[in-house]
Specification:
membrane; mainly alpha
């Protein structure tokens, strides 16, 4: 029983960590778009701070969320080094999400041992 509780807690913690990493990734992507358009960089958590945002702000947040898909490579070809640094952070976040997904797959394989089916 204790192992089942620990297992469920671990799975939920990993899922919440993935959501957190996706949010941070979207924040870095918003910073990237702002720097690319020569605006103030802002903070990573600005992606969450919007209430009654204007249409350009909504469009910018949508573009930031969809900017660098996970299955495509991120090329570090920017002339400005701060843009390349943001791309490096996003690449590291992608690697972290992949590692967590692998851990979730491994936990799914072992879930049969903790939650046996009775038929």
């Amino acid at each position: 029983m204790l192992f089942q509780i620990i297992f469920v807690f671990l799975v939920l913690a990993l899922l919440l960590l993935i959501l957190l990493l996706f949010t941070i990734k979207a924040g870095f992507q918003l910073q990237y778009l702002r720097l690319k358009s020569k605006k103030k960089e802002g903070k990573v958590w600005d992606i969450l701070k919007f209430s009654g945002a204007t249409a350009p702000d909504k469009k910018l947040r949508y573009e930031a969320f969809m900017l660098f898909p996970m299955l495509y490579p991120i090329v570090l070809d920017e002339k400005r080094e701060e843009l390349n640094n943001i791309k490096r952070r996003i690449k590291r976040i992608h690697i972290g999400i992949y590692v967590i997904l692998i851990a979730l797959i491994i936990l799914a394989i072992y879930s049969e041992k903790l939650f046996p089916t009775t038929a």
